[in-house]
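Researcher: We plan to redesign the surface later, but first we want a full-length starting point. Tokens attached.
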């Protein structure tokens, strides 16, 4: 059965689908995906019993016209998502980069939704499974789509661009992400630049941060591009919140730091390009509140907590710490968790970060995780080996009028520290 015929069935199902047999809705299509610890084919019959009209499977489950047999369910879902994307003649903005993709995506959505029916990536659905789901979820009335494109190994950005077909795009920055898969910063840059190659081949337009040397150098061959820069605005404050003037319009944000100012300026540049009034853009940015452990500013009594524990790599750690050092409180405490996926450079990166932190003379530095513990000797760092011990150590200090930065890789779940503060 060819893709057009199955797309007709997708239409018959009113574009309803799921990859989770626990969330079957009446009349949907069930995609029986496989993973390391599950096989969706085993739940396909149950999905039909629960009300799914069709189940896309890649194992022989018997004769039932409601089964759609394909060679590989994931590959087929990607092809169907691509076909669905080609039915829309709309701006599709692809977002790549080492750090800040999700915050930038959310800011763009906050701005663009003020004028357009905007569809965007939910959560962190930015990989070979998440991007097709994002595309298939695109409603018929979508006027602009924002698709986050993630990577942890070479070739993924090119593959995701071929799926999503972005005609607009941006790279937030180039940093030391997933070095286990890439090895070097240059390899990261090469991978992220695939979105520029895609835009060049398809006559798309790139939004480029002119202050970033990596991005300006990588984008030299692009024919269609527009630049934005911090030099275009007058900065009033970066910590604990952001405030600045841009073209005689005042902007404020609950976000903090010059790295988040870059994300905000990206949203302004995109909003302006799509003819949204600056006052409306300013309102959208002011009303955006970070969540899900990303750049959250929390006040607890006399203490101020910056919770940025969704993920971490050496580059994002460094900019977060550097901005945290400018917090107005005299007492400042770092609470850092291990950074994952750094491969053979893991110990060196953790050691270098701790040595670099010493210049700021923070009141106290706590670390959690085996890698930090292996390099922290003689650095004046407290390295408890469990979250409970870390929490008890913090409680014993009874900090007051103190600023805290909590950051670490997702697997460390550093937000758990909040219970002890």
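Model: Full-length starting sequence:
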């Amino acid at each position: 059965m060819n893709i057009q015929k199955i797309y007709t069935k997708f239409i018959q199902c009113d574009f309803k689908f799921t990859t989770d047999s626990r969330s079957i809705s009446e009349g949907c299509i069930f995609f029986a995906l496989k993973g390391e610890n599950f096989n969706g084919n085993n739940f396909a019959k149950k999905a039909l019993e629960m009300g799914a009209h069709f189940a896309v499977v890649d194992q022989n489950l018997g004769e039932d016209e409601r089964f759609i047999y394909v060679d590989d369910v994931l590959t087929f879902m990607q092809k169907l998502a691509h076909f669905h994307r080609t039915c829309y003649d709309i701006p599709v903005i692809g977002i790549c980069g080492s750090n800040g993709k999700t915050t930038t995506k959310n800011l763009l959505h906050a701005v663009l939704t003020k004028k357009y029916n905007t569809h965007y990536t939910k959560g962190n659905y930015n990989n070979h499974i998440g991007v097709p789901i994002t595309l298939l979820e695109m409603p018929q009335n979508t006027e602009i789509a924002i698709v986050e494109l993630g990577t942890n190994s070479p070739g993924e950005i090119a593959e995701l661009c071929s799926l999503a077909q972005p005609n607009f795009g941006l790279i937030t920055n180039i940093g030391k992400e997933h070095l286990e898969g890439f090895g070097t910063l240059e390899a990261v840059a090469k991978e992220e630049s695939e979105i520029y190659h895609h835009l060049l081949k398809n006559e798309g337009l790139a939004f480029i941060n002119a202050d970033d040397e990596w991005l300006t150098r990588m984008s030299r061959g692009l024919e269609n591009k527009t630049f934005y820069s911090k030099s275009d605005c007058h900065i009033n404050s970066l910590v604990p919140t952001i405030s600045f003037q841009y073209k005689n319009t005042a902007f404020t944000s609950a976000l903090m730091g010059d790295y988040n100012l870059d994300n905000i300026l990206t949203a302004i540049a995109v909003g302006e390009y799509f003819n949204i009034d600056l006052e409306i853009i300013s309102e959208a940015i002011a009303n955006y509140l970070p969540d899900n452990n990303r750049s959250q500013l929390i006040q607890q009594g006399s203490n101020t907590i910056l919770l940025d524990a969704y993920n971490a790599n050496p580059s994002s750690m460094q900019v977060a710490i550097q901005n945290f050092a400018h917090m107005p409180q005299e007492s400042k405490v770092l609470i850092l968790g291990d950074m994952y996926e750094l491969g053979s450079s893991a110990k060196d990166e953790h050691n270098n970060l701790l040595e670099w932190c010493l210049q700021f003379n923070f009141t106290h530095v706590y670390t959690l995780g085996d890698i930090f513990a292996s390099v922290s000797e003689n650095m004046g760092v407290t390295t408890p080996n469990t979250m409970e011990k870390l929490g008890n150590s913090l409680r014993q200090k009874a900090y007051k009028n103190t600023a805290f930065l909590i950051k670490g890789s997702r697997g460390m779940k550093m937000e758990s520290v909040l219970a002890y503060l």
